[in-house]
């Protein structure tokens, strides 16, 4: 089987890092490049962390392109980053693996996205797992970009669950106008993986121990990242299963490998950009009250056992 080509658009903290390793190491995927965006941390740290991950797992040849440093419209939304040294922060500033020796590419991420899809002769799935700023900028600069992307697999949003305000999930809240542009653009296929799905695909301390026991760089790194996530979630956002945490972004990559790892339903999705209390809310019309045609396939659930098995298989030494 020909590996499925993809590009990851990341704001690399701990969960992005696991997604990058899964995409880079699995033989059924061909990770063409990573683009970075301001989000979990400032974009220059996202870029550095992305390079760290690829170097650490032996794939420094995968190019990294730095992208947007701020939201496309709003400059008045301070990103709610916790104290970097606090155990309540699930990412930290720098991932706990060595500094990279590889360097970022000279081209801007948006330029790379536009030119790559213009010249593509095979389908390339675009997987944005941070704020959607780079994707919105690509649409604004090249309207034809929308028709060239066969599928967007987005990590973001939430219907009943939020994690940044009472109404909003982080990735969408950071740049709601960008998200609004993306969902109104008319992409042929949007798959949205919100908190409802990622909070079901929990990874535990026992799973982290299994990953470490693999004895591979990816197994060790993923264990470190997941353990940090579990410490932070236990302190500030405990999950239903004690000593466990979601690894949001990696679930999007797992879906590319086994679509049955998430349960999908067709809904219309809109982004709130005006609400005083609801800025950044992902408005998912689950009862079809808005009379608008579905524009996304939305993950409403996930299979945690399949998800963990995918990680264990991909990070085993033989890969």
Automatic annotation (TrEMBL):
- GO MF, any single term: uridine nucleosidase activity
Gene3D superfamilies found in the cross-reference section: Ribonucleoside hydrolase-like (3.90.245.10)
Question: What's a single GO BP term from this record?
Answer: purine nucleoside catabolic process
Give the Inosine/uridine-preferring nucleoside hydrolase domain ranges: 6-308
What InterPro entries does the record tag this protein with? I/U_nuclsd_hydro_CS, Inosine/uridine_hydrolase_dom, IUNH, Ribo_hydro-like
Q: Name one Pfam family in it.
A: IU_nuc_hydro
Identify one Gene Ontology CC term for this UniProt entry: cytosol
UniProt keyword rRNA-binding, yes or no: no
Query: What are the record keywords, sorted?
Result: Glycosidase, Hydrolase
Task: Please give the superkingdom of this protein's source.
Answer: Bacteria
Protein name in UniProt: Nucleoside hydrolase
Q: What is the scientific name of the source organism?
A: Naasia lichenicola
């Amino acid at each position: 089987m020909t590996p499925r080509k993809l590009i990851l658009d990341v704001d690399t903290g701990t969960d992005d890092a696991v997604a990058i390793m899964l995409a880079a190491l699995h033989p059924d995927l061909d990770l063409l490049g990573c683009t970075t965006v301001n989000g979990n941390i400032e974009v220059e740290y996202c870029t550095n962390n992305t390079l760290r991950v690829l170097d650490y797992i032996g794939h420094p040849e995968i190019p990294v392109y730095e992208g947007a440093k701020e939201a496309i419209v709003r400059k008045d939304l301070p990103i709610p980053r916790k104290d970097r040294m606090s155990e309540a922060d699930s990412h930290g500033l720098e991932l706990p693996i060595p500094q990279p020796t590889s360097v970022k590419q000279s081209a801007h991420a948006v330029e790379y996205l536009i030119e790559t899809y213009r010249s593509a002769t095979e389908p390339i799935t675009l997987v944005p797992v941070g704020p959607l700023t780079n994707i919105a900028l690509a649409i604004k600069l090249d309207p034809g970009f929308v028709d060239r992307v066969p599928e967007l697999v987005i990590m973001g949003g939430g219907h009943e669950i939020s994690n940044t305000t009472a109404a909003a999930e982080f990735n969408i809240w950071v740049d709601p106008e960008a998200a609004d542009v993306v969902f109104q653009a008319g992409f042929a296929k949007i798959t949205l993986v919100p908190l409802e799905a990622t909070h079901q695909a929990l990874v535990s301390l026992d799973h982290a121990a299994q990953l470490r026991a693999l004895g591979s760089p990816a197994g060790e790194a993923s264990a470190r990242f997941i353990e940090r996530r579990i410490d932070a979630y236990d302190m500030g956002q405990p999950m239903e299963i004690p000593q466990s945490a979601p690894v949001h972004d990696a679930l999007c990559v797992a879906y590319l490998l086994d679509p049955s790892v998430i349960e999908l339903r067709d809904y219309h999705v809109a982004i709130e950009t005006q609400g005083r209390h609801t800025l950044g809310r992902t408005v998912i019309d689950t009862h079809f009250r808005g009379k608008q045609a579905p524009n996304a396939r939305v993950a409403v659930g996930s299979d945690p056992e399949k998800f963990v098995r995918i990680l264990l298989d991909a990070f085993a030494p033989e890969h």
